[in-house]
TrEMBL record:
This is Uncharacterized protein. PANTHER family: EXPRESSED PROTEIN, OS02G0740600 PROTEIN. Residues 18-37 have a biased composition (Basic and acidic residues). It comes from Ceratopteris richardii (Triangle waterfern). Residues 1-44 are annotated as: Disordered.
Length: 88
């Protein structure tokens, strides 16, 4: 009976494909190649974009805090105005 890794002929995966060969040809292997101009440019774009995202997060956080404090002070002002009218 053949194992799950054997074909109908009784040959295993190693027998069919060989284990002595490199899984990737030399020209396809990325670890042996230098990055292309496109890859270098993409790396720079990612760096600039991440800086922009960090700035946007900071601005959003500050804006949210200001909105929260402004809303709180506005609601407090309305409460004060209501109390002034009801005490008369």
């Amino acid at each position: 009976m053949a194992t799950p890794f054997e074909s109908k002929d009784g040959l295993g995966w190693v027998d069919q494909w060989g284990s002595d060969k490199d899984p990737l040809p030399e020209d396809v292997s990325k670890e042996k190649q230098e990055p292309t101009q496109k890859q270098k440019f993409a790396g720079k774009v990612k760096t600039v974009a991440s800086t922009g995202v960090d700035k946007a997060k900071g601005v959003a956080s500050t804006s949210a805090k200001k909105l929260k404090s402004g809303t709180s002070s506005g609601i407090q002002w309305i409460k004060d105005q209501y109390q002034k009218r009801t005490k008369k």
